[in-house]
Amino acid sequence: MKISTEIGSIGRIVGFEKAIEYCAKAAFDAFDFSMFDMAKYDWANKCILPNDSLLAGKDYLKYVRNLKKIADGFGIVCNQSHAPFPTSCPEIRSFYSRAIECTAEMGGEICIIHPDNDKSAEENAEMYFELLPAAKEYGVKIATENMFNWNADLKQALPAACSPHEDFLRHIKAVDDKFFVACLDIGHAEMKGLNTSAVKMIHTLGDSLKALHIHDNDLWHDSHELPGTMQINFPSVIKALKEIDYSGYFTLEASSFLREYNSENVFDGVKKMADSARNLAEMFENAGE
């Protein structure tokens, strides 16, 4: 079982070039290419922000090719990527074909593109159908992900697209294409108010499950902490993954873990992340023995 991590949280501290280097030196097999800066979103005013990111500019392919060259030099690959969000913003949706193209240039096999939280499987399928030609042209699978809404009064999650396990499967079946797969966010599946679990999701999705976002929480909030530091029962999650013969990467999305780190000590944090992911991978490999 190979391990990976998102590089957005590392890149915010030292840049993507160093983030890739540190992941390789920490013994990750791969990385999840975080492309959130391709289209930055103002959540308060519900619009995209002015953006000087190279991913948003006209030379985006030159930038991605340079990152790929760095990754090759350190012997690490990109297993998957994450497109910008929210999908409800039309301006952000206009970048999704670019995100798929960049995934291909980076060598990634899967691009995670969120569904629109408040649309049905059939409505979200319309967007994914529009993107499938690009996915097939570049040889990159699109993965949808289980989401959530938040109720400020109840202070807990509310259902959204793919958050009930049955609705996640409905989204997969609505598109019904080998280039459209599932990315299970372990933390989202364990949030209070959604009445599901990661184990239920895994058994429901079966061989449609091709990617993971692994992080821990208090079974209530979207904490994005390191596995084993909070309350999710990871042995049961690993057991379920073993039961469906999951064959993808173990990809961390513990994007809050590095918030207390800085450029001087962030590599120590990346090593701890790799150790955590490797522990899960070894648990998977030893399950059933």
Structure description:
This protein has helices at residues 8-25, 60-74, 90-93, 96-106, 121-138, 165-175, 186-189, 198-205, 234-243, 266-286, and strands at 3-6, 30-34, 41-42, 47-48, 77-82, 110-112, 141-145, 149-151, 156-158, 180-185, 209-213, 250-252. It is α/β, with parallel strands linked by helices and 289 residues long. It has a single domain (3-286), classed as Divalent-metal-dependent TIM barrel enzymes (TIM Barrel, Alpha-Beta Barrel). The strands form three sheets. An eight-stranded parallel sheet has the order 11-10-7-6-5-2-1-12. Helix 1 (8-25) crosses helix 10 and helix 8 packs parallel to helix 9. It starts with a strand and ends with a helix.
In short:
The protein is an alpha/beta fold.
CATH class: Alpha Beta
Helix and strand pattern: EHEEEHEHHEHEEEHEHHEHEH
CATH topology: TIM Barrel
> Proportion of β residues?
15-25%
Structural class: alpha/beta
Radius of gyration: 18 Å
CATH superfamily descriptor: Divalent-metal-dependent TIM barrel enzymes
Oligomer: single chain
Give the total of beta strands: 12
Return residue spans where pLDDT drops below 50 for at least 5 consecutive residues. none
Q: Given the structure, what is the number of helices?
A: 10
Spatial separation of the terminal alpha carbons: 16 Å
Fold blueprint:
Blueprint: E1 3-6, H1 8-25, E2 30-34, E3 41-42, E4 47-48, H2 60-74, E5 77-82, H3 90-93, H4 96-106, E6 110-112, H5 121-138, E7 141-145, E8 149-151, E9 156-158, H6 165-175, E10 180-185, H7 186-189, H8 198-205, E11 209-213, H9 234-243, E12 250-252, H10 266-286
Parallel strand pairs: 1-2, 1-12, 2-5, 5-6, 6-7, 7-10, 10-11
Antiparallel strand pairs: 3-4, 8-9
